[in-house]
Write a structure and sequence with these properties.
Helices cover about 0% and strands about 70% of the residues. The protein has about 90 residues and is mostly beta strands. A hairpin with a 4-residue loop joins strand 6 and strand 7.
Length: about 90
């Protein structure tokens, strides 16, 4: 990434915090498609559908199966709040 910026990401559900840390990008399933988030994205709030949240980090890619909830983006902080979520098998 040319700018050297990263995202701070937190993935939570009713069960608690599943993951948090720095990431290069995040892909979120929404009720009407898919949302990709990179550093510098304008603030937004999106309703999530069912699918896979993908968090791309420098050395790994984390995946979470989610159902419902919302994703919030504000000042390079991404918060994924899922109704139900599990860590996807790699």
């Amino acid at each position: 990434m040319a700018s050297g910026k990263s995202l701070q990401v937190e993935v939570v559900s009713h069960e608690g915090r599943l993951w948090h840390g720095a990431a290069l990008s995040v892909q979120v399933p929404t009720v009407d498609g898919s949302l990709g988030v990179l550093p510098g994205r304008q603030p937004l709030l999106a309703q999530m559908g069912e699918g896979t949240v993908t968090v791309s980090c420098t050395s790994e890619v984390m995946s979470f199966e989610v159902s419902g909830g919302f994703a919030s983006v504000d000042s390079d902080f991404v918060t994924v709040v899922a109704d139900h979520a599990t860590v996807a098998e790699q």
